[in-house]
Amino acid sequence: MLSNEKQKLIEKIKNYSSLNFNWDGEGSEKIEQNSILSAINFIELMPNDKPIPEDMAFANGQVGLFWELENLYADLEFYSDHRITYFIEKNKNQKFRGFVLFDQKEFPELFKSLLTI
After folding, report:
1. N or C of the chain: less Cβ packing under 10 Å?
2. Bridge partner list, 83
3. Cα(37)–Cα(17) distance, rounded to whole angstroms?
């Protein structure tokens, strides 16, 4: 069962499907449904010991999640081809960036350690 915080976050992300072209100014793309679904699957699979992120939408049509805590800054961007790009900074001196393929069946192993505070 999902926590209330996760359920609220998922509802906010589902609402991105109502954003049309130019939602964030001239030239912004419609938010891609597969990006929305990927972000929702990520939240549903996220272990309960991980802090709840904030949501964001990008002008390129992708959905993102970010954390801004004392010892952790992370942002993830979910692409329709099942990639998650990430930038993570821990303890203000460890930086990680790259991408992982997300099968939407298991929480990516990489984030189990990198999203730990």
Report:
1. N
2. 101
3. 10
